[in-house]
Amino acid sequence: MKLSFLGGLTAQQFLKDYWQKKPLFVRGAFPEFTGLLSPNELAGLACMEGAESRLVQNKGNKWTLRRGPFGDKDFQKLPKKSWTLLVQGVNQFLPEGTALMDVFDFIPRARLDDLMASYAPQGGSVGPHFDPYDVFLIQGIGHRRWQISTQEDQRLLPDAPHRVLLDFKPEQEWITEMGDLLYLPPQCGHYGLALDECMTYSVGFQAPYAQELASQFLMFLQDEIRVDGIYQDPDLKAQAHPSEISKDMIAKVSDILGGIKWDAQTVSRFLGTYLTEPKVGVVFNPPKRPLTLEKFGQRAQETGLNLALTSTMLFHENCFYLNGEKLAVAKEDKATLRDFADTRHLPAENLAGESLENQFYQWYRAGYIVLEKRSRHDTGSSQN
Ligand code: SIN
Ligand code: CO
Question: Is the pTM of this model over 0.70?
Answer without folding.
Answer: yes
